[in-house]
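Subject: design request, 397 residues
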C-alpha cells in the first residue's frame, strides 16, 4: 500500500526553517518565513495578549465545544475590525463570519464552499502570490491560473497587465486578491487602482476573494481595512479571509476568520448554513483559546488600546528597518537604487536578488531568504542589519 507513496516536495518557505535550524553558524539570519521579530530578534508575546491570557486563566472557564462557526463575540469583533463598527452591510445583516483555524483555513473553507456553489469556476491568483493560495484552491478542486501583478522592471505593479488579465477571465471566475501588504512582493494597489479593479470584476462578473493576513502592517487597522470596505460597498458578493497570526503574534494559536458579504440577511443565513456544513466535515468546530484571547483584547477597551500601540510599534519598526537597509546598502557603495524597499509595505520585500544570489547569501553568509528573492524585513534588527546589507551588496555586485 504505502510502498508506492512518493516523497512530497518540502514547502519552499517552511522548509527553510529546517535548514536554518540545522545551520551551526552563530551569526546566521533567517529572512525566510514571514514572522515578525522584535528589536532583540525575539518572537514577541504582546502585552495585550499576556494580560488577556492572565484574565482567562483567572476565570478558569470550562472548555466546551464552540459553535461550528465559532465564538460569537469573536466573530462580531472581527466584523467590526474589517467592515467598521457602523458599516451598513453589518447593520443590514448581510455579512456572515465564521471563526477559522488561521487565515489558511478561512481560505480553505471559502474555497470548499465556492467549489460547491460554482463548480465550473476557475481561480486566478496574482503572479506571484503566496504559494499556498494555489495549493489551497487546487485541493478544493479548482483549476488555478494567474493574473499579471508584479513588474520587476519598476519594482511596482503591472497595473495595465493586471486589468487585462482580469478582463480575460471567464464570467464567474474567482479572483484572489491581497487586501494589503502583498506577499511576497510588498507592493500594493492604491485606492484609485482598487476602484478600477472593482469595476472590472463587476463588468466581468468575477468573484473577489480578499486575503488579509497583514491588517495593520500597511497603514494601520483602519487604513488597511479601507480596501475591504470598498469591496463591501460595491454590492458584489465578497469573500474575505483574515488572520491574526501576525497582527497578534499568535501564529501557533491559529486564529482567523472567513467573512462573506451577501446580498441580504436571508442570503446570509443560507450561506452561513453551507459554511457550517463545510466546517463540520472538516474540523467540526474551531478551537477556543486563540479566539478567546483575540476576542478579549478586541472587546476590552484598555487591552485593545495596548494592542493597537504594539501593532503600531511593529509597523514602525519594520519601516525603520526598511530605511536602515537601504541606507546601509548604499553606504557599501552599491550604485544601484534600492529605495523601492522603502516603498514596499508589510513584512516582505522582493529584493530583486535571483536564486543564485540567494544561494550565495545562504552559503557564504548564513543569511536565509526565499529563492524568489523575497526577504522578511520584519526579521531585521540593529544587530543583523549591517551583516545583511554587506551580504546583499556583496552578492549583487
Ligand atoms: N495569506 C497570506 C498571504 C499569508 O502570508 C499567510 C501567512 O501565513 C496566510 C494567508 C495564512 O495565515 P495563517 O498563518 O493565519 O494561516
Ligand atoms: O509566507 C510566509 O512566510 C508566511 C508563513 O506554507 C507561511 O505566510 C509560509 C508558508 C506556508 C505557510 C505559512
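Subject: RE: design request

Done. Sequence follows.
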Amino acid at each position: 500500500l504505502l510502498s508506492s507513496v512518493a516523497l512530497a516536495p518540502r514547502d519552499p518557505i517552511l522548509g527553510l526553517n529546517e535548514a536554518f535550524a540545522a545551520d551551526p553558524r552563530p551569526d546566521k539570519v533567517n529572512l525566510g518565513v514571514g514572522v515578525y521579530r522584535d528589536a532583540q530578534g525575539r518572537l514577541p508575546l504582546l502585552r495585550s495578549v499576556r494580560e488577556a491570557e492572565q484574565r482567562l486563566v483567572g476565570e478558569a472557564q470550562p472548555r466546551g465545544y464552540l459553535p461550528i462557526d465559532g465564538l460569537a463575540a469573536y466573530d462580531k469583533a472581527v466584523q467590526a475590525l474589517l467592515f467598521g463598527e457602523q458599516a451598513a452591510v453589518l447593520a443590514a445583516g448581510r455579512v456572515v463570519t465564521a471563526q477559522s483555524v488561521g487565515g489558511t483555513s478561512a481560505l480553505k473553507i471559502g474555497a470548499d464552499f465556492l467549489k460547491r456553489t460554482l463548480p465550473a469556476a476557475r481561480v486566478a491568483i496574482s503572479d506571484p502570490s503566496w504559494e499556498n493560495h494555489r495549493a489551497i484552491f487546487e485541493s478544493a478542486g479548482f483549476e488555478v491560473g494567474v493574473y499579471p501583478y508584479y513588474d520587476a522592471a519598476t519594482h511596482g505593479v503591472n497595473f495595465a497587465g493586471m486589468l487585462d488579465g482580469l478582463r480575460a477571465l471567464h464570467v464567474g471566475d474567482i479572483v484572489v486578491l491581497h487586501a494589503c501588504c502583498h506577499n511576497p512582493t510588498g507592493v500594493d494597489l492604491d485606492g484609485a487602482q482598487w476602484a478600477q479593479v472593482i469595476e472590472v470584476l463587476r463588468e466581468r462578473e468575477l468573484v473577489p476573494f480578499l486575503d488579509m493576513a497583514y491588517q495593520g502592517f500597511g497603514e494601520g487597522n483602519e487604513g488597511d481595512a479601507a480596501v475591504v470596505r470598498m469591496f463591501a460597498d460595491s454590492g458584489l458578493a465578497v469573500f474575505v479571509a483574515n488572520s491574526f497570526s501576525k497582527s497578534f503574534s499568535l501564529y501557533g494559536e491559529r486564529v482567523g476568520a472567513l467573512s462573506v458579504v451577501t446580498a441580504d440577511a436571508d442570503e446570509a443565513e443560507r450561506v452561513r448554513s453551507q459554511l457550517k456544513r463545510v466546517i463540520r466535515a472538516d474540523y467540526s468546530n474551531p478551537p477556543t483559546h486563540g479566539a478567546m484571547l483575540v476576542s478579549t483584547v478586541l472587546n476590552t477597551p484598555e487591552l485593545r488600546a495596548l494592542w493597537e500601540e504594539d501593532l503600531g510599534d511593529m509597523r514602525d519598526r519594520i519601516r525603520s528597518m526598511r530605511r536602515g537597509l537601504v541606507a546601509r546598502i548604499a553606504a557599501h557603495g552599491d550604485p544601484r537604487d534600492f529605495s523601492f524597499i522603502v516603498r514596499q509595505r508589510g513584512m516582505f520585500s522582493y529584493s530583486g536578488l535571483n536564486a543564485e544570489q540567494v544561494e550565495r547569501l545562504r552559503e557564504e553568509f548564513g543569511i536565509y531568504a526565499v529563492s524568489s528573492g523575497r526577504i522578511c524585513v520584519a526579521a531585521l534588527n540593529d544587530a543583523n542589519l549591517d551583516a545583511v546589507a554587506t551580504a546583499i551588496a556583496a552578492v549583487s555586485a
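The pocket of pyridoxal-5'-phosphate (ligand 1) is lined by residues 34, 102-104, 130, 178, 183, 211, 213, 243, 245, 256 (CB under 6 Å).
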